[in-house]
Write a structure and sequence with these properties.
16% helix; alpha+beta; 4 helices; globular
Length: 227
């Protein structure tokens, strides 16, 4: 567990692919518990450690996760995430196919995707539609190509809404399936079971001190060759 930033009110940690942010039915120890252990040991805190989970990343995704260390910060961060005042940038290594993704060129300009996503709870998967359908939620993101490789492209993605598997589903819908993401049509899995999606950057005004917090994630090995 790697701490990227901490103060009295918030702590930002790097999540490895394969970790879960919060406890679930698997019973695996979540990142939130590792962060609690870190705080308890570093500050010699007696009793239980308070830690608020304000957002999550899918298990096979790596990158930055923000936690609240106080109830004041938790309430304010929850509201900030709800209002879209926390700005997250993702990097995705995507397969190049003979369609929209094949014609991508590196650019400073973003392309916007708007579609309607329907979540299938049994499959733990979302489906994209170009029109509103029953039980669908509108999903919007922006992307641009940062670098082209031999078989894959490195995309930068900015989320404008927060839907289940939104980046994975919407990129796959334009023919840019994330490397290793078998659920959404990748040709093969990554050796470590990850998908090549990284919560690369996060930026927001601190909920208590009102200073700007702007942080970058470490780069997993699969991303380093593109930098």
């Amino acid at each position: 567990m790697q701490v990227i930033y901490e103060d009295n009110h918030i702590i930002v940690a790097y999540k490895e692919s394969g970790e879960i942010v919060q406890g679930d039915k698997t019973g695996d120890k979540p990142l939130s518990d590792y962060v609690k252990d870190y705080i308890k040991e570093k500050y010699a805190k007696p009793g239980q450690v308070f830690l608020g989970v304000v957002h999550r990343l899918d298990r096979p995704v790596s990158g930055l996760v923000v936690f609240a260390r106080t109830s004041k910060a938790l309430a304010r961060l929850n509201e900030m995430f709800r209002k879209g005042d926390v700005h997250k940038t993702y990097w995705a290594i995507c397969e190049r196919k003979k369609d929209a993704a094949d014609s991508m060129t590196t650019s400073a300009d973003f392309t916007q995707i708007e579609s309607w996503l329907v979540r299938n709870e049994k499959q733990n998967k979302s489906y994209s539609y170009n029109r509103e359908v029953p039980n669908a939620k509108k999903a919007v993101l922006k992307y641009r190509c940062l670098k082209k490789g031999d078989n894959f492209d490195l995309l930068e993605v900015q989320l404008l809404t927060g839907r289940h598997h939104q980046i994975r589903c919407q990129l796959a819908s334009i023919g840019a399936t994330i490397k290793g993401d078998l659920k959404y049509g990748a040709k093969r899995s990554n050796p470590d079971g990850s998908i090549s999606l990284l919560a690369r950057h996060i930026e927001f005004i601190h909920p208590v001190s009102k200073t700007l917090i702007s942080l970058d994630s470490p780069l997993p090995g699969t991303f380093q060759k593109f930098v």
